[in-house]
């Protein structure tokens, strides 16, 4: 069947060429004209129902075939009109008499209007749109291909999907490039139609009056009417094709057809329909306007707008669905196994809120949560050099009305309770004046605080309390959760984005090192190690240069991290030292010797193995020093030798995750180190 269709198409195109040479009978011409009209109508309907232009990728070739067909039919009809006494078949005769009423002047004017609309308006606009679309598609092609490569490298898509997407990008470029040239066919066809009509008119007058000896009236009725009818028969399909061309090149990708999008988008704004209806009714006051027609149309638009407004009730006003079995449509939806996979998607960061907190976070109700999160992401990028993934916000009916929960990768990490109509007053000063309020703990830092009413805010501030609004409580808590879990949020996608950003200024460095010398996996592990200890990764260039020096000989990511930390000593010193001074707790040499003696190396990794009682004594001494100094210092810093640092950090991180462990090689030489204690056993 496929071979038959291919051969039939070939024969059809060859037949079109033969139409120009071979004379046709009136009956055959009628059939071909009807086929031309039908074919043009089909093309117009297809262009209205496709969702994206690539679904009709053969359109440029079809445009050439239809143009060639119309030219061939024009030649055949001209041969019959001039050679058969104006008789060119029933179709042309019908258009010349029924459609234009046998009036050549009327027909000529109608023909000119169609040609002008097609040539000046539709064809010119479609040609310009096709030209711009082709240029922008070609300009965007490298970026789209890079996006596909980035998704492939990050593991978001597989090789097969990447291949399909690359082919689609190439097809888009080819299609719009072809459309840029194919639009010229319509322009040329309109010019040919005008020339053909002039030739038919002049030739008909010469043949009828000079050679046939007929009077002018007979010539007009015989030749001119047939000529005008022939022009209209040709131009109506041409108008449909040019309209299809304009719709195709102006059609953006969508999940619906043009008619569906048009219907949905127009009825989405009932206020526009209501205003239009009101304007029509007001126009009845103008003398001379048809009052009845304006009233009927205006009332119809207002009634339609009212119906649409009632139909579009807010979701909150709809009654809740009773619990029970899934509705039939939802059951059918999940009957497809592929749709179930959508339930497996896990958001990097989620914030779920109870009912009473919705006004704080919902922009439609005056909430400012989104803007606060945007500023939080900006601040984190400046401080840590990492772009935080988008924060997903949801309401959860299962939570208490004043509760919120922060989730990382689908699991609840922390949460709290916030009173939306109160302020949180924290008392950092002992002995400050007591104020009335509801006792609580600040969720992020577990500081004793009180929920106070708005009228108590000024008094609390005068009494030395720090007063913050409830939204700031949530955002601050979210910020701390992001800081503590930044290493979990930093995935392959974030790594690729950072590398792409560095390529803008130092493309050679990235291309030389990644992934040839440093794999994406090792680089990600090093950066996660830094983030887990609150070390900024903003200086990615220095990090890569250091890895490029040591990675060829060292494969242990933990050891590579230590060399990177030493290269970032300026950043580390600035983060933990204050006024050129660093207050620390040192590690007894005996403990350092025990740790180094307990190091066990495996393939690509290493760990510390100590006697349980020894580990317990070290941890007890560490916690004793930390508890002693936590009221004096913001960060309790433990200073060790470079070879011990990472192992001691691993030893205590489970029991003291916020402890800061630095080595001597990570501190600038001009910093004054003050030892406030020693960890010993």
Q: What Rg is obtained from the alpha carbons, in whole angstroms? A: 39 Å
The gross shape turns out to be elongated
Mean pLDDT: 80
Number of strands: 14
- Uncertain ranges: 314-328
**In the residues, how many domains can be counted?**
5
Fraction of helical residues: 55-70%
- Proportion of strand residues: 5-15%
Largest sheet entry: 4 strands, mixed
Q: What structural class do the secondary elements suggest?
A: alpha/beta
Q: Span between N and C termini?
A: 89 Å
Instruction: List the strand order in the largest sheet.
Output: 2-1-3-4
Count of helices? 25
Tell me what the structure shows.
It is a single chain. Strands 2-1-3-4 form a four-stranded mixed beta sheet, with helices on one face. It has five domains: 13-257, no CATH class; 269-311; 345-487, Glutaredoxin, CATH 3.40.30; 494-567, FHIPEP family, domain 3 (Helicase, Ruva Protein, domain 3, Orthogonal Bundle); 572-681, Rossmann fold (3-Layer(aba) Sandwich), CATH 3.40.50. Strand 3 (403-408) and strand 4 form a beta hairpin. It is α/β, with parallel strands linked by helices. The N and C termini lie far apart (89 Å). The model is unreliable at 314-328 (pLDDT under 50). The longest helix is centred in the first third of the chain and has 53 residues, at 159-211. It is built from 25 helices and 14 strands. The relative contact order is 0.06.
């Amino acid at each position: 069947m496929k071979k038959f269709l291919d051969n039939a198409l070939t024969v059809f195109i060859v037949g079109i060429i033969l139409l120009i040479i071979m004379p046709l009978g009136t009956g055959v011409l009628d059939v071909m004209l009807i086929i031309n009209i039908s074919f043009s109508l089909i093309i117009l309907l297809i262009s209205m129902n496709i969702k994206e232009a690539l679904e009709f990728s053969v359109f440029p070739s079809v445009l050439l075939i239809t143009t060639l067909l119309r030219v061939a039919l024009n030649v055949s009809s001209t041969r019959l009109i001039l050679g058969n006494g104006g008789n060119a078949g029933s179709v042309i005769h019908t258009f010349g008499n029924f459609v234009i009423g046998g009036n050549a002047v009327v027909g000529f004017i109608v023909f000119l209007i169609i040609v002008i609309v097609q040539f000046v308006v539709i064809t010119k606009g479609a040609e310009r749109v096709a030209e711009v679309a082709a240029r922008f598609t070609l300009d965007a092609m490298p970026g789209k291909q890079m996006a596909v490569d980035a998704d492939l490298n990050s593991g978001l898509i597989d090789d097969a999907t990447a291949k399909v997407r690359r082919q689609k990008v190439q097809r888009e470029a080819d299609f719009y490039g072809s459309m840029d040239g194919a639009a010229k066919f319509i322009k040329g066809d309109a010019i040919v139609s005008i020339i053909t009509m002039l030739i038919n008119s002049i030739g008909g007058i010469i043949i009828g009056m000079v050679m046939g000896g007929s009077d002018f009236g007979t010539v007009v009725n015989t030749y001119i009417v047939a000529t005008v009818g022939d022009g209209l028969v040709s131009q109506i399909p041409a108008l449909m094709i040019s309209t299809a061309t304009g719709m195709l090149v102006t059609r953006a990708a969508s999940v619906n057809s043009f008619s569906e999008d048009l219907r949905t988008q127009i009825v989405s704004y009932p206020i526009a329909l209501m205003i239009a209806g009101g304007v029509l009714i007001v126009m009845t006051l103008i003398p001379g306007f048809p009052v009845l027609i304006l009233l009927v149309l205006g009332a119809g638009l207002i009634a339609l707008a009212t119906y649409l407004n009632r139909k579009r009730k807010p979701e909150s006003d709809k009654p809740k669905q009773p619990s029970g079995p899934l509705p039939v449509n939802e059951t059918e939806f999940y009957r497809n196994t592929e749709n179930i996979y959508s339930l497996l998607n896990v958001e990097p960061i989620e914030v779920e809120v109870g009912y009473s907190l919705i006004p704080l976070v919902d922009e439609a109700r005056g909430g400012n949560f989104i803007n606060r999160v945007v500023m939080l992401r900006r601040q984190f990028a400046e401080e840590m050099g990492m772009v935080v993934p988008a924060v997903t916000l949801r309401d959860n009916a299962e939570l208490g009305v004043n509760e919120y929960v922060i989730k990382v990768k689908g699991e609840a990490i922390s949460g709290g309770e916030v009173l939306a109509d109160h302020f949180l007053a924290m008392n950092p000063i002992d002995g400050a004046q007591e104020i009335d309020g509801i006792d609580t703990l600040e969720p992020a830092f577990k500081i004793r605080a009180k929920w106070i009413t708005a009228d108590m805010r000024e008094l609390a501030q005068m009494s030395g309390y720090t007063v913050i609004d409830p939204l700031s409580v949530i955002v601050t808590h979210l910020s701390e959760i992001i800081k503590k879990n930044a290493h979990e949020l930093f995935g392959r996608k974030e790594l690729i984005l950072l590398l792409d950003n560095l390529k803008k200024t130092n493309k050679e460095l990235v291309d030389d090192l990644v992934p040839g010398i440093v794999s994406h996996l090792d680089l990600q592990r090093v950066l996660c190690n830094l983030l887990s200890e609150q070390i900024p990764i903003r200086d990615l260039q220095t990090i890569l240069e250091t890895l490029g020096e040591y990675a060829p000989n060292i494969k242990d990511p933990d050891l590579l991290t230590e060399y990177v930390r030493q290269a970032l000593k300026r950043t580390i010193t600035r983060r933990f030292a204050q006024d050129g001074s660093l207050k620390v707790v040192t590690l007894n040499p005996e403990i350092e010797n025990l740790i180094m003696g307990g190091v066990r190396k495996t393939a690509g990794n290493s760990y510390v193995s100590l006697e349980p009682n020894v580990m317990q004594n070290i941890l007890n001494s560490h916690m004793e020093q930390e508890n002693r100094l936590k009221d004096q210092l913001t960060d309790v810093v433990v200073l060790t030798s470079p070879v011990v640092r990472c192992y001691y950090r691993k030893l205590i991180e489970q029991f003291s995750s916020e402890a800061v462990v630095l080595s001597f090689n990570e501190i600038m030489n001009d910093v004054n180190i003050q030892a406030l204690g020693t960890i010993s056993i």
